[in-house]
What does this fold into?
Amino acid sequence: MNKKILQENAGIKTDTIVDKMYFDSSELIREINTLIDCRKKWGHTQEQVAIECGVSIPTIKRFERLKVDSLSLYLNYKQIFS
It folds into this structure.
């Protein structure tokens, strides 16, 4: 795993269920960041994504800060922007 990524994200929980699927949390971090970039480019607000995913706005904010390890949220978020 890339030490620089871990140092930049100190304190962020990166050991999630999805990590086990990818076998490398840095890949997951890159993919989530790509999804966040897509949300912003497409002009979706966090509130819109929260409604589409059926979760609260604070949950989306935590997800985008890599503080939520919900596989269903990840897959729902991914489905919106893939």
